[in-house]
Design goal:
Shape of chain B: elongated
Radius of gyration of chain A: 23 Å
Distance between the termini of chain B: 29 Å
Oligomer: heterodimer
Shape of chain A: flat
Helix content of chain B: 25-40%
Number of domains of chain A: 3
Structural class of chain A: mainly alpha
Number of helices of chain B: 14
Largest interface: A-B, 87 and 102 residues
Distance between the termini of chain A: 24 Å
Radius of gyration of chain B: 39 Å
Largest sheet of chain A: none
Number of helices of chain A: 11
Strand content of chain B: 25-35%
Number of strands of chain A: 0
Number of strands of chain B: 24
């Protein structure tokens, strides 16, 4: 079937619109940091509250609100609450017992998210992110309709699809964990990557080369796209962790910290570390599956399920480095910053594979569509 | 041996261990353990004096997903007094430690890098040869290091064999321990449940025994394994996590074995096949043959393949013009000589499977046909010569025709085939890969082709050392045109063209084992990430006012996917709800004491117990400050 160039053009318009909306969303997240409600930690002792008797798992408490880095270890029973947050300040602990286990249970069962209002800038930012995602998704879907196949057959399509996954996954994480503080960083990275995709590696819509005409494209590349999107978010969290952790160390050591407007509003390092870990845990099986699906496809297309093609090799290296990360987090002396560096190394390997190996090193995977 | 590892969020804190007064050589379950591990355990559980909790924490840590111990937790040999056995044991411990495994994993990743950046013998021998000629000194060094055959190099094998040895050394004992723990009941409930990471407490007028009984019922309804004692219930669930973890690591081992199986008993081969010809799968008929170590010429499946027709279609308009759209090869094959021939459409992503061996379409090209008569008028060559594509947009192909036996002189031709020839400013190019205007441009040579001496030559190129070029015209030939060679050396006629395909033939007996291992790898991974091993404890006791205080505590380790907090909250809600319901159903289990309380409760709604239960003093104690002091 011929390529529907009209649809392809509309797809391009949608994607450009998405970049613009994402940029606006990024601005809104930045405005929240600059002008949004100040979230100050409120210390509360156990006696003052009907609920806080048992220390919640630190990350749970801190995921709730903005728990300052310095106290995130959980020294006294602290529940981070936004003290100026629209009258909901004191409600955090009480609401958690009420929501979670019926009134009357003493002890914090879990960190139930505050139901305080989001603040104007965050609301605007989330709406813009959702709008941008809608445009982004429309662009990807229309691209697929214009070429009558799944829209991840070349490098440009792969990048637009994986950023779409990253934004959707990030929206999920953000809503599930109320991690609005990540918005600025994720959006900045998405705008950059998608902008580069539109300008540098744009490839016009067209049919697939015969090697890619297989239903395994749907399985293998979809899994790789999903996993890459998830690892993308994990890497952003990992970078945020490194900054917050450095800040927390400086505060702990009593050294001057300079401007900390943004860092103070991020959750503690433990929270980010745990969030990054869970994100990787989510992405790792998808990546494993994607590599295996690729091996099965390679077996059907090229006659060998593993031939150490450069792209395969780097997918393997990426897998091993993420496996290192998962093991390192359970090994003394390797947790924290070192584990975060390993995670970022894994993502660097992934990026190297996508950007350098696929484009420059000849191999069986040379489908980038660029000359 | 209890291999305690640091729980992910534990803070190494020697003070806590000292404060807890732990025996650092023997855990209370009788298995020797080491100081650091227990110290972490102590820091983590904060109340290590509670013996039951120590059991709980130690055992739950056993259930962490990653199999290795910390090297730091293994004692170093004290001097040379250990003897050979001691040193061997120490070495084994080092090898099977988590740190060593991590380092080996890193080495595996780092060692793979040159395999992707340098040309490899296995996949691209021509590029390796080219590298040798362009960087002779560097190439020799790299070659000696095995960097042109990384994935077959001894040092690479050493890395993964050590890694897998390390893995076995850790998976086997863990399997035994898993079997052991599955046969033991859960540990006893610790004394003070409020110290657990998840805890909740409430008062109920129900008698402690009744409260425990309904709690136990609820927990066993959720398929927890139960153990009960005076005033407590302890429940455990999630053994599948460790099963998944072990399955994952064993399946990786299975994958390695499967790959080895393919390397021993499988083979790979290539064959170029011109339209209208056929070949039998024998060693002599194959262009390239890479047998496994235990494969002989007799082990090849004796099938025959004939190529009737090959068709390729390309994008004809737009920016991607010339990009291939479909390839199809009409072939006939028979499983063994003399068998009936079957038709088959061979395509990319659609291999032919005969007798366990598979035949893939991996490439295609043109084979122009020539008829050459020599100076004596004898036809010395008549046939198709496969040319190799040198670029993809117009499929310009190059090749050589060699007629060493022509008289009076041997003849050689180097040619370019242009499927869609077009003259661009006096230079011939091909604008499209399909044969719209198939022309051939040749350079003719005469002399000694040197084919009966010296090193073997490629069939696609001509060694012009012993040859001299002939001036001939016209240069580009259309089908049917001829060139007359000067000095009566002969005539060449370009009679037409055929298409050829290149086939990859592979046989890998380890393939299905590899597939099943891969499935097991994934299943194990998902189990170990999605299942969490967790314990829930219930204690019920009567306080001074006669009310029953129910304490619930929960403990989990490496809750990778998260969600225990939700589960614990759900359990707490369910158990407290059950207690409430049993009060409602059977009024006044203890009428004298509870009447006033019940009135209170009814006044404030069915689920509000909070007014009736006095706080127990330790509920309001701040948690052990030492927990964070360590950071």
């Amino acid at each position: 079937m011929p390529v529907n160039t009209g649809l392809a053009d509309i797809s391009n318009d949608f994607l450009l619109t998405a970049v613009v909306i994402y940029a606006l969303a990024m601005l809104a997240y930045a405005c929240d940091f600059a002008y949004g409600k100040k979230k100050l930690p409120a210390l509360r002792t156990a006696k003052a509250s009907a609920v806080v008797a048992v220390e919640p798992a630190p990350e749970e408490a801190a995921l709730v609100g903005a728990k300052p880095a310095a106290t995130a270890g959980g020294t006294p029973p602290v529940v981070g609450t936004p003290s100026t947050g629209g009258g909901a300040a004191a409600a955090s602990g009480d609401s958690s017992s009420g929501d979670a286990a019926g009134v009357g249970l003493r002890g914090v069962i879990k960190g139930v998210p505050d139901r305080e209002s989001l603040g104007r800038w965050v609301t605007i930012a989330v709406v813009l992110t959702s709008l941008g995602l809608a445009a982004h998704l429309s662009g990807v879907v229309l691209r697929g309709l214009s070429v009558h196949r799944l829209p991840w057959g070349d490098m440009y399509e792969f990048v637009t699809a994986l950023t779409c996954v990253a934004v959707a996954f990030f929206l999920g994480v953000m809503i599930r964990y109320r991690a609005y503080y990540l918005g600025l960083f994720v959006m900045a990275a998405v705008v950059l990557v998608l902008g580069l995709a539109e300008t540098v590696i744009y490839t016009p819509a067209g049919p697939l080369v015969p090697a890619l005409q297989s239903y395994w494209l749907a399985i293998h590349v979809t899994a790789m796209t999903l996993a890459t999107g998830v690892f993308f978010v994990a890497a952003v969290i990992g970078i945020a962790y490194l900054f917050v952790d450095r800040h927390a160390r400086r505060v702990a050591a009593g050294r001057p910290t300079g401007s900390d407007g943004i860092l103070r509003r991020l959750p503690g390092p433990e929270v980010l570390d745990r969030l990054a870990y869970r994100t990787v845990v989510f992405g790792f099986p998808i990546w494993t599956f994607g590599v295996m699906a690729g091996a099965i496809w390679a077996d059907r297309a090229w006659g060998s399920y593993w031939s150490w093609d450069p792209t395969e090799t780097w997918a393997f290296i990426t897998w091993v480095v993420y496996a290192c990360f998962l093991h390192a987090r359970a090994t003394a002396g390797w947790r924290g910053r070192r584990a975060a560096y390993i995670q970022l190394t894994g993502f660097a390997c992934l990026l190297f594979n996508v950007l350098v190996i696929s484009l420059l090193v000849p191999g069986l995977h040379s489908y980038a569509g660029l000359t | 041996m209890t291999w305690l590892r640091n729980p992910p969020e534990a803070k190494p804190d020697a003070q806590a261990a000292e404060a807890a007064g732990l025996d650092t050589t023997l855990a209370s379950d009788g298995r020797a353990t080491t100081a650091e591990g227990l110290r972490h355990a102590a820091a983590d559980i904060q109340d290590a004096a509670a013996e039951g909790l120590r059991h709980a924490a130690a055992d739950v840590q056993d259930a962490t997903p990653e199999g290795h111990r910390d090297a730091a937790a293994t004692p170093h040999p004290a001097g040379l007094s250990l003897g050979v056995v001691g040193w061997l044991r120490w070495g084994w411990r080092q090898l099977t430690s988590m740190r060593t495994a991590l380092v080996l994993l890193f080495l595996l990743a780092a060692g793979s890098v040159p395999g992707s950046l340098l040309p490899q013998e296995g996949t691209n021998p021509a590029s390796v040869a080219q590298y040798y000629s362009s960087h002779p000194v560097l190439a020799r060094v790299l070659g000696d290091l095995g960097l042109f055959n990384v994935f077959g190099a001894p040092w690479f094998a050493a890395i993964y064999i050590l890694l897998f040895t390390s893995l076995v050394g850790c998976v086997l004992p863990r399997t035994l321990r898993l079997v052991g723990s599955a046969r033991q009941p859960p540990p006893r409930a610790p004394g003070n449940l409020s110290r657990l990471p998840f805890a909740v407490s409430y008062a109920t007028p129900l008698a402690p025994e009744a409260a425990l009984e309904s709690a136990a019922k609820a927990l066993s309804g959720k398929r927890f394994r139960l153990r009960t004692g005076p005033g407590w219930v302890s429940a455990e669930k999630g053994y599948l996590r460790e099963v998944g973890n072990l399955l994952f690591h064993m399946a990786l081992l299975g994958l390695l074995v499967s790959i080895g199986l393919g390397g021993l008993f499988g083979y790979k081969a290539d064959r170029l096949l011109v339209t209208g010809t056929s070949f039998a799968n024998t060693v002599t008929a194959l262009d390239e043959f890479h047998p496994g170590r235990l494969v002989g010429p007799d082990n090849l499946q004796p099938f025959t393949v004939a190529l009737d027709r090959f068709s390729a279609s390309y994008v004809t308009s737009g920016t991607l013009v010339g990009q291939p759209a479909a390839f199809n090869a009409k072939i006939r094959y028979s499983a063994s000589p003399g068998d009936a021939m079957h038709s088959y459409d061979l395509a990319v992503n659609h291999p032919l499977i005969v007798d366990g061996a598979r035949v893939f379409l991996i490439g295609h090209g043109y084979a122009p046909e020539f008829r050459i008569t020599d100076g004596t008028g004898r036809v010395v060559f008549d046939g198709a010569v496969p040319f190799v594509p040198v670029e993809t947009t117009g499929l310009v192909s190059e090749g050589a025709i060699k007629v060493p036996d022509a008289n009076p002189k041997g003849l050689g031709f180097v040619g370019v085939f242009l499927p869609s020839a077009i003259d661009v400013g006096g230079k011939l190019e091909s604008y499209f890969p399909a044969p719209n205007n198939p022309m051939v441009s040749l350079v003719s040579y005469a002399g000694n082709l040197g084919m009966n001496s010296g090193p073997s030559q490629s069939v696609y190129s001509l060694d012009t050392a012993g040859l001299h070029e002939l001036a001939v015209s016209p240069k580009p030939l259309a089908i049917g045109q001829s060139v007359k060679l000067p000095n009566g050396l002969g005539t060449l006629t370009y009679t037409g063209y055929r298409q050829w395909i290149s086939l990859a033939i592979t046989y890998d007996p380890g393939q299905s084992a590899a597939l099943w291992s891969g499935i097991a790898v994934l299943a194990g991974l998902l189990l170990s990430f999605m299942v969490r091993r967790r314990r829930v404890f219930v204690r019920a006791s009567t306080d001074e006012t006669g009310n029953t205080i129910v304490d619930l505590g929960g403990l989990t380790r490496s809750d990778a996917a998260g969600g225990f907090e939700d589960e614990f909250a759900g359990l707490a809600t369910e158990i407290s709800g059950l207690h409430q319901a049993s009060i409602d159903a059977s009024p006044s289990p203890d009428p004298g004491l509870e009447a006033a309380d019940r009135t209170d409760r009814e006044g404030s709604g069915p689920s509000s117990h909070q007014g009736s239960g006095p706080s127990s003093p330790d509920q309001s104690d701040p948690p052990d400050p030492e927990q964070s002091a360590g950071e």
